[in-house]
Amino acid sequence: RALILFTLGFAFSVIIDHFQQEHDVTRFPRNGAQVFSTASWVTLSCGAAGCLVGTMYPMLDYYLSSTPHACNRDWPSVLRCTAGFIGVNYATAKLTGTDGAQISLALSICAVGLWFMFDRTWYGFLLSLLVAIIGTWAAQFFVSTGFYIFTKADFFGVRSWFPCMLYSGSVLFGSIGRQL
Predict the structure, then answer these.
(1) 42 CB-contact burial (10 Å; exposed 0-12 / middle 13-18 / buried 19+)
(2) Do 85 and 53 touch, CB atoms closer than 8 A?
């Protein structure tokens, strides 16, 4: 399970970062090690985060719920959740010219909508929120040290929609982890 989650986190980071770089949303210093034009630390950290989040959801189901999580537990639902996650991330790359607050509001609704359609647990909501907060803090740290650059940062060095992207990613990896 851990190897599959790590590999998926690694692969999704390459795809999503390609969207972001293609539309000039993010940049990396070109003097570091890279994997598929993505900084190597991004792919490794996303793989590790996918593994951690994907294992936390089934553990929380086991310890906090007397019954197994029953909301959309099948592979077609996981694929629909994947499409929603990639859609949210593609929107962040394509909608760069509009107001950041409007994008953030729309993507927040989409991220919570993903949670509602594919999770619906209070601890899934809180875990995704925690992932969004910690991930945004980590991104702010990498921006402040120069390892990561958002071209039009509007929220303490990162884009205001970034927590929405992390939140929806957490819902996706929780869905995958539960299915595995």
Answers:
(1) buried
(2) no
